[in-house]
Amino acid sequence: xxxxxxxxxxxxxxxxxxxxxxxxxxxxxxxxxxxxxxxxxxxxxxxxxxxxxxxxxxxxxxxxxxxxxxxxxxxxxxxxxxxxxxxxxxxxxxxxxxxxxxxxxxxxxxxxxxxxxxxxxxxx
Length: 124
Fold this sequence. Notes:
Layout: E1 44-46, E2 58-60, H1 64-77, H2 80-86, H3 89-102, H4 105-114, H5 116-123
Antiparallel strand pairs: 1-2
């Protein structure tokens, strides 16, 4: 009987032996530090259609529910440029304990592995 596995293991650019998922959420999408997050702290933010293609597009940052909705959309669907443009470091740290529950495991774990201060803010 022939084995289906040859014992040959591929190694990818990140050093792993698993092929990167085209649906995955990789750390390469993230800013280098949270200090790069230069998004607004107040006012109303209007997301482009490529981020908010269904439903609400304008978010009043003074309303915590709307702020959390904006951050959920950007964290799940955004690019590095979107993170830098729409996310604010202080808001992210302050609201991470709630936001982390609104995100999928892959998104949450990627951000927390890259930025341990997010984990600390959740423990506080």
